[in-house]
Design goal:
Elements (H helix, E strand, L loop, with lengths): L2 H32 L6 H17 L4 H27 L5 H24 L14 E4 L2 E4 H23 L1 H11 L1 H6 L4 H26 L8 H15 L4 H21 L5 H15 L12
Antiparallel strand pairs: 1-2
Helix pairs in contact: 1-5, 1-6, 1-8, 1-9, 1-10, 2-3, 2-4, 2-8, 2-9, 3-8, 5-6, 5-8, 6-8, 9-10, 10-11
Amino acid sequence: MTWSLVAQGLVSGVILGALYGLIGCSLTILYGTMRVVNFAHGEFVIAGCYAALVFGGLGVHPLLVVPIAFVLFFGVGMLLYKGLMPRLMKSDDPELASFLSFYGVSLMAGAALLYFFEADTRSLNQSFEPAVVRVLGLILPTAQLVALAVGALLIAGLTFFLYRTLPGKALRAAIMNRDAIQIVGVNIERLSALAFGLAIGLGAVTGVLIAMVFPAFGPFSGLEFTLIGFVVIVLGGLGNPVGAIVGGIVFGVAEQLAIVFMPQSLSPVVGFLILVVTIMFRPAGMFGRTALR
């Protein structure tokens, strides 16, 4: 065992963890604002992967697909909000109702992807030159470095939006206390629609980056990313976007370092073990509050 392998695993963990953090961040915005459990989130991530594949077939570079995917799926998120949420939010238990409803959406989305793209796994044909970059003795795929750079820009842009713009501050206020902001005149329905579109759009953009990094993806790969997203937001703290980013990096680093010391099939065990330990000693997560309501 050499330190170069450990360093390689650490860097790869940060890169993948940033992508996991983006998945968790988009999930936690939706949950924090509306208490909606979007069990179909992974399918929208995979839909972003297929968007990169389709536009790539038309000659569009994956980096140019990022804004296209965001705009398209932001619109999809707004339509889903209009079609599903008014009734769900009136139920006695919106969290349970949303979980069951979006489980159905997950099945339908997976079936639709299977119908249009068949069951074979796919991968992007585009590559970067050079294919790898050597930094301090480490061999890093250029696609991973590009995905990390884009992910960092997305995180920075999202942070600026949440902390420096009026709609972003309203979203953070809704996460803290949804009822209180309505007293001061905030249009909660319009804000919820914005949160829904932003979450779905950000999930699809993350899918484009995942398609650049992961060797293959399929119609039913969404469940894996949904589970990772929920693990990440529980680690970081429900309803805390910054916590989701940190939780994603912790999970990614743990997973990749485990591959260095353990068989790859056992590597997810380490991430879930960290989750169990976190829940035991800090049930609200690393950055969570004891009570969200």
